[in-house]
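Take a look at the protein record below with the fold in mind.
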Amino acid sequence: PNVEGLKLVGVIEAENGSNRALLEDKVGVSYILKSGDKVKRGYVLRVEIDRVYFQVFEYGWSRTIALALDDY
């Protein structure tokens, strides 16, 4: 998926710390991603209780994008 069009709708907590992010894109397609999963031009850096971080590579630069839960 393209990170720019995703919305974080939930997080599945795991006791071992490998949380999973529940994401939805603009057309309603859902994704369940964990740390290390690939996305368009990058990967999932980490999943916390209320947000997910992506590392994205564009034009020779990298940047971190964070998506947060709206109602947390």
Q: What stands out?
A: The mean pLDDT is 93. The radius of gyration is 12 Å.
